[in-house]
Amino acid sequence: MGISKDLLRQIERTLRPIRRSISNSIARAVVNLVNDDSGIQTVQVGVMAGENVDDAERFQQYGFSSVPLPEAEAVVLFPGGSRAHPLVVVVDDRRYRPTGGSDGDSFMYNYQGTLIRITGLEVRLGGPLAADGAIKGTARNAAEQVFLTALSTFVGAMLDAGVPSAARSTFATAIATFQAAAAAAISTKVKLE
After folding, report:
1. How far is CA 86 from CA 38, 47, 58, 74, 160, in A?
2. Is there a domain that residue 193 lies in?
3. What is the largest CA-CA distance in the chain?
4. 71: domain CATH number?
């Protein structure tokens, strides 16, 4: 005893809206425009040829935010298969994503190559245009201040020994300038453990 063709057609007709809803619930897309002026970012994405979806809410991980460039790729959810309230849940841009990471590495990056890489117990800040090195902790700065204070005391003693005041003044200015620059080079916002 088999199922009749009429019954199969009826089952197919009954399931068609459910199948359509499921197949329309997720899509790949390309970012066209971004509006980052409100509490939740909205994007216009191209989902299928000729179909632009406007004002799709883009959900991002708490504590991290980015503004993707046009032509970045996205995954869009359409709850219940309805195009009425699209949700962008992932955006990636293969043009700029750093490669060559090791197991467990994490990156924060932008399209210009600026990069923060967390690898093992090391944090690397920089990019192709990075010019300044980083000093770990404040111990070096404290040691420099002790050295410069001793040097300043020594220069003062030289004046008492007959060294011309112009030379002492130049040396004292150089020490003070270096102390100020060294103190400014230590960030109170970035802490390395």
Report:
1. 17, 11, 9, 12, 79
2. no
3. 120
4. 2.40.50.230
Domain extent, residue 87, equals 5-92
Q: Where are the beta strands (DSSP E) in the chain?
A: 26-35, 42-48, 51-58, 73-77, 87-92, 106-109, 115-119, 122-126
Decide if 35 is inside a domain: yes
Please say if the pLDDT value at position 183 is more than 80.
no
Burial class (CB in 10 A: 0-12, 13-18, 19+), 89: middle
Mean pLDDT over each residue of the chain, to the nearest integer: 83
In this structure, the answer to whether residues 148 and 114 fall within a common structural domain is no
Measured at the CA of 44, the angle between CA 40 and CA 50, to 5 degrees, comes to 160
Q: Are strands 106-109 and 51-58 parallel, antiparallel or unpaired?
A: unpaired
Q: Do 16 and 75 fall into the same domain? A: yes
Residue-wise pLDDT tens digits, 96-124: 999 988 899 999 999 988 888 888 777 77
One-letter amino acid for residue 94 of the chain: R
Nearest Cα neighbor of 59 from 39, 41, 80 is: 41
Based on the domain organization, do 38 and 71 belong to the same domain?
yes
Based on the fold, state whether residues 156 and 128 are members of the same structural domain. no
- The residues near 31 (Cβ < 8 Å, ≥ 6 apart) are 43, 44, 45, 68, 69, 70, 71, 72, 73, 74, 91
Based on its alpha-carbon atoms, the radius of gyration of the chain, rounded to whole angstroms, reads 31
Characterise 37 by phi-psi region: left (phi > 0), alpha (psi -120 to 50), beta (else): alpha
The count of domains in the chain is 3
